[in-house]
UniProtKB/TrEMBL annotation:
It holds the Pfam family Peptidase_S8. Residues 29-108 form the Peptidase S8 pro-domain domain. Residues 163-288 form the Peptidase S8/S53 domain. Keywords: Hydrolase, Protease, Serine protease, Signal. One of its GO terms (molecular function) is serine-type endopeptidase activity. Belongs to the peptidase S8 family. Furin subfamily. GO terms for cellular component: extracellular space; membrane; neuron projection. Residues 1-19 form the signal peptide. GO terms for biological process: peptide hormone processing. PROSITE patterns: SUBTILASE, SUBTILASE_ASP, SUBTILASE_HIS. It comes from the Eukaryota. Transmembrane segments: none annotated. The lineage of its organism: Eukaryota, Metazoa, Spiralia, Gnathifera, Rotifera. This is Neuroendocrine convertase 2.
Amino acid sequence: MNFYYDLCILSFIFSTVYSNVQPTVTKDWLIEFHHHVEPDVAKLIAKRYAMVSRGPVLNDKHLYHFIDMKPTHPHKRKRRDVAQEQLIQQHELVKRAIHQIPHIRVKRGYRSAEKVKENFPQYQQPNDPYFQYQWYLKNVGQAGGKPRLDLNVEEAWALGYTGKNVTTAIMDDGLDYTHPDIMHNYNAAASYDFSSNDPYPYPRYTDDWFNSHGTRCAGEIAAARDNNICGVGVAYDSMVAGIRMLDQPFMTDLMEASSMAHEPNLIDIYSASWGPVDDGKTVDGPRHATMKAIVKGING
């Protein structure tokens, strides 16, 4: 299987960069008024409470940014000043006063391989022969690429996040469920062939392997680990279902909708790695029944 082709599901695992920042209460306040208040009026109200107004927030004169100018010992300012909030809200023009407390936001990024070894000394990387070429799982500069620019999945694996009990439906040109890297992770009960109207979504292979796209997608997601075959899936303990629906001359709204609504009680993720003709001129999207299927899936 070609694991470079179409990284259709892999981006659902991200790394986390931890921060040492400790939250403390700020001097910032969000003041919401019952109706529009001019900046000069807001300044007078702020002055009454030993604050200054920094002006409207989002160009909305209902909302203002106030700064508390009262000196406060840093060790005493650890919580929202609820009493002050209640005091300000007694003003006839003020609807709500919200003392701002920090929220920690950190950049997403990658960790070094050494960090994984350090934090998880028992972890062993997969021994599948093609894993060394799967740059999107572990990039060490293969083929001239930039090391460490990958999905950073090894730490997630070490923590035990391997996709267990999750089924992804591959809506595509079929799925070779007899492949030894997929067969044990194949969910037959959740599979169907809408191109041939039977429960066996096996691909119609051609001389140029044109109908192997769905199988490759399935391998990227759920190829078995440590079986000495090909590579490894990003969620190698998960299941895949095959929904064959692309192997015919045209698509109908009904077929597309039926595929997206197939066995929702058995399927957790629907992978649709396809779309309208990409010729720079065609603009198309879900039709009536397909859109209903999507909305129904979202709403449960």
